[in-house]
Automatic annotation (TrEMBL):
Region (Disordered): 454-551, 585-621
PANTHER family on file: REGULATOR OF TY1 TRANSPOSITION PROTEIN 107
Ranges of biased composition (kind: Basic and acidic residues): 513-536
Example GO biological process: double-strand break repair
Classification via SUPFAM superfamilies: BRCT domain
Record-given protein name: BRCT domain-containing protein
């Protein structure tokens, strides 16, 4: 009989590096090595702080963690990093298992989950399995020792009873747990979802949600600690460190630490076998505070480890190497804010301990302001769950209520993320999201594209070259002359092009992956100029800059190009609301939403003819836009989306762009004076108001007619509303959207017409509108907000208005409204909605006396 290694050499042609860590002891590593070699593999055992062997020699790395120095390099080289379980599964299957399902990367947050399903619908089962496999988990059709989670609706199923009767250590969870995990992109605690008595089904909606301490954030809540951590402050308490053994560390002058602390840090590093040097070229690690300066850029481009003081202290405390990109505040910060974050005022709620301190410091690092209390002037509320009085108040005041993932991912991508993304507005019912704070990691490709691009692109892509004229990693200017000269030279085009400095330059994201480079192929000539010629003369510098800028712009709009090409392949498709893909103002659907199709069937010949017509329209140059037209109440389009689509295309060919936003319109067309939100909002921007007959006439004659011949005249409506349309437009031009500046207007929740309609009218005229639900909380914050804004125009106004009617449910909140307003020393005025509409329609202020409501009017005034 053949020996085992001759019979089955599964790992032949494979060479492994087994990386020891606190979870993978050297004795276990030697056992793994013996098994691998028995089945034809070669192995090397690595123990820190030894020098890591050449990475290219290995086909696989075996590790229980990604906290080893060459993880990023292995990922970029497409060398799989797997947990030891991968080897056992490969042997049991007698083939190499998929390494993705066994990765120790915490971003694959379900990599420790082996799931099986009980009696749940097939559709739910397929969705759960797809999500689990995509996030690193495994599926087992049968119950077994390897299964960690059973998904079921009750404990009455056969699998659930088997798990209970046999005492298997399996968590029986509702499908809701996987749903919430996948929505957030994070693994949350299973306890609220555990059968037989899941908390999410029995707890009341207003029951308090327990807060949890996040131990993972200890030592990572600030980017600039002031003291050494307790375990390393004295020789008696100090553990024996080997994390620095054989490493050269440079402490940048921009840390601005005192000589006593500097000597203490140097002593600790040298006791651990490391060296503190001042030459970044010979350093293995750079510790600095800011993402700027020659030393920072040089170390980053050479793939050295770059972290801040907090990261250095973390290594000292735990004596275990971890990447400075693993935690957001372990990496140097930027002096300039994330584009769009300057001026934001963000408040935190329901986060405690280190997690709260971490988020406060992270908000400051983005360039926004973190306020201790919630005020009406706040723009965002970041909360760990949505079940609190503070959250309700924020929603009433029209703030964005999101979870911490919005802040973390905006910081990691150095770009403000959309607050409408469902991931940022999802709050599991019985989970405090403080438990998953700090799991977001920095993306090196983003850092490279923005903060240390390659030298040939540095002048065009870095937003801070124009702002820093000297090396800010050194206070004495000791950088080498060639480096300083190169830096000054790179500043010239930055200063000439302020738009580059004000935007996040995604174009410089030079991906390391081959697959990414193939996503967009530029013309050969443009590719040559963007990469640079070998023998370029000085006279071509200006031309080269222009071509580089063009190439950068092309990369920036790459997602739009890809989406356009995708839509071009759609046969005669109708994208949304009857708009065709050639329409300039069509609404773009989210890629995950369902595409609406035309309700009228077309045969293949008609579709081909339509596609040819579309192509011809693309080739035909359209006339410039002569007017931006907002249309309200045009009856010929009501219920006929196909005609609306055709007519809008014809209008565009005549130079008329139909818009939906009142702020963008130059002309307003309507059959008569209307009180629709479109009409009233548009009045505030002083457009030319014309009759809807103008549209009909232009379409009939197929030419752009003179709009002054179609000015809207409606004497009946002017008499009814007591206004002159001509005077209203003239007044709007003088008001410049400031008619209601300083006015504070509230709406009752059940206001006829809807709160959003009245809020848009108040906003268009410069006022402040909020929803009033009868709450009298956060009075001190309101009062402070009023005091803070005392210098603004109109802030001295003593009246606060409530739009209401005499309906019984609306009258109930009147006493609370009066109590709230009087408590801050102002006068409450409860008025009919006509007060606001008449002001907005006439563009003239009107006294509230004729519109005021009182309790004794309940039987005399109609709702």
């Amino acid at each position: 009989m053949a020996a085992p290694d001759e019979e089955f050499r599964l790992f032949d042609q494979c060479k492994f590096c087994i990386i020891c860590s606190k979870d993978l002891h050297p004795s276990t590593a030697h056992q793994l090595a013996a098994t691998l070699e028995q089945h034809g593999g070669e192995s090397v055992i690595y123990e820190a702080p030894a020098i890591f062997p050449p990475l290219h020699e290995f086909t696989h790395l075996i590790s229980t963690t990604i906290d080893f120095p060459t993880f990023e390099a292995a990922k970029n080289a497409l060398i799989p990093v797997v947990k030891p379980h991968w080897m056992h599964q490969s042997l049991s299957k007698r083939k190499l298992a998929n390494p993705r399902q066994y990765s120790p990367d915490p971003r694959l947050f379900l990599n420790d989950v082996v799931v099986t399903c009980g009696d749940i619908p097939e559709g739910d089962k397929d969705a759960i399995l797809g999500g689990v496999l995509a996030k690193g988990g495994l599926y087992s059709a049968k119950m077994g020792q390897a299964v960690t989670h059973l998904v079921d609706l009750t404990t009455a199923s056969d699998k659930a009873q088997m798990a209970i009767n046999k005492g298997l250590k399996i968590k029986i969870v509702l499908p809701h747990w996987f749903d919430d995990c996948l929505k957030l992109g994070r693994r949350i605690d299973e306890r609220p979802y555990l059968l037989p008595d899941p908390e999410i089904l029995r707890a009341a909606a207003d029951a308090p949600i327990r807060s949890t301490d996040n131990k993972d954030m200890i030592g990572a809540s600030t980017s600039n600690p002031t003291n050494l951590p307790a375990p390393v402050m004295s020789r008696q308490m100090r553990p024996k460190l080997d994390v620095f053994e054989g490493r050269n560390i440079m402490l940048s002058p921009d840390l601005a630490i005192g000589s006593h602390l500097l000597n203490s840090i140097t002593e600790i590093i040298e006791e651990g076998g490391g060296s503190v040097i001042s030459d970044v070229s010979n350093a293995d690690i750079l510790v600095c505070r800011y993402r700027e300066g020659v030393a920072y850029r040089l170390a980053s481009r050479l793939n050295k480890d770059v972290g801040n003081l907090s990261w250095l202290y973390h290594l000292m405390t735990y004596n275990t190497w971890t990447s400075p990109c693993r935690r957001l505040l372990h990496y140097p910060v930027s002096r300039t804010p994330i584009p769009g974050f300057r001026g934001l005022k963000i408040s935190l709620s329901n986060y405690v301990g280190e997690a709260r301190a971490y988020l406060e410091n992270l908000v400051a690092a983005t360039g926004a302001e973190c306020t201790k209390t919630l005020r009406q002037e706040n723009t965002h509320l970041v909360t760990a769950h949505g079940n609190s009085e503070k959250c309700e108040a924020a929603r009433e005041w029209g703030m964005h209520v999101i979870n911490h993932l919005w802040i973390e991912e905006s910081y990691a991508k150095w770009k403000q993320q959309s607050v409408s993304d469902p991931r940022y507005t999802h709050f599991p019912r019985r989970t405090n999201l403080g438990e998953v704070v700090g799991q977001t990691q920095l993306d090196k490709s983003v850092l490279e594209s923005i903060f240390y691009p390659s030298e040939d692109k540095e002048a065009h892509t870095s937003p801070r070259r124009a702002m820093h004229t000297k090396d800010q990693n050194t206070t004495t200017g000791k950088g080498s002359a060639p480096m300083q000269g190169r830096q000054k030279k790179a500043q010239v085009p930055e200063t000439d092009n302020p738009s580059v400095a004000s935007e996040t330059p995604r174009a410089a994201n030079k991906s390391r992956k081959i697959s990414d480079s193939k996503k967009l192929e530029t013309p050969a000539r443009m590719r040559l100029t963007s990469e640079g010629k070998e023998n370029e003369t000085p006279s071509s510098t200006s031309s080269r800059r222009s071509k580089d800028a063009a190439a950068a712009r092309l990369h920036e709009i790459a997602p739009d190009i890809a989406l356009y090409e995708k839509e071009m392949k759609r046969v005669g498709g109708v994208i949304y609301g009857g708009r065709r893909k050639t329409d300039e103002d069509r609404v773009m659907l989210d890629k995950n939403s369902k595409k609406r199709r035309s309700t009228e069937p077309q045969d293949e010949d008609e579709e081909e003819e339509e596609e040819v017509a579309d192509a011809k329209r693309q080739k035909k140059s359209r006339p410039p836009i002569a007017m931006h037209l907002l249309i309200s109440g045009y009856q010929k389009w009501v219920g006929n989306m196909k005609k609306e689509d055709t007519d809008k295309r014809q209008l565009r060919e005549l130079g008329i762009q139909v818009v939906q936003d009142a702020r963008k319109c130059s002309h307003l067309a309507a059959p008569s004076i209307l009180r629709t939100p479109k009409f009233v909002n548009a009045l505030a921007y002083a457009p030319m108001i014309i009759s809807a007959d103008f549209i009909t006439a232009c379409l009939k004659k197929n030419e752009l007619l003179d709009p002054t011949e179609f000015l809207l005249k409606d004497q009946v409506a002017e008499d009814r509303y007591g206004l002159s349309l001509e005077e209203a437009v003239a007044n709007a031009g003088k008001n410049k959207n400031k008619l209601l500046r300083g006015y504070q207007v509230y709406c009752v929740e059940s206001i006829r017409g809807g709160f959003e309609a009245f809020k848009s009218i108040v906003d268009a005229n410069g006022g402040d509108c909020a929803l009033f639900r009868g709450r009298v909380s956060y009075q001190s914050q309101r009062e402070e907000s009023d005091d803070d804004s005392s210098g603004d125009e109109g802030s001295g106004r003593k009246e606060v208005y409530l739009l209401s009617s005499v309906a019984v449910d609306q009258m109930r909140v009147w006493p609370r409204f009066r109590q709230m307003v009087e408590s801050i020393g102002k006068t409450p005025r409860i008025v009919r909605v006509d007060w606001l509409l008449d002001i907005a329609m006439s563009q003239m202020l009107r006294s509230a006396d004729d519109y005021e409501l009182r309790e004794d009017m309940a039987n005399t005034v109609e709702e």
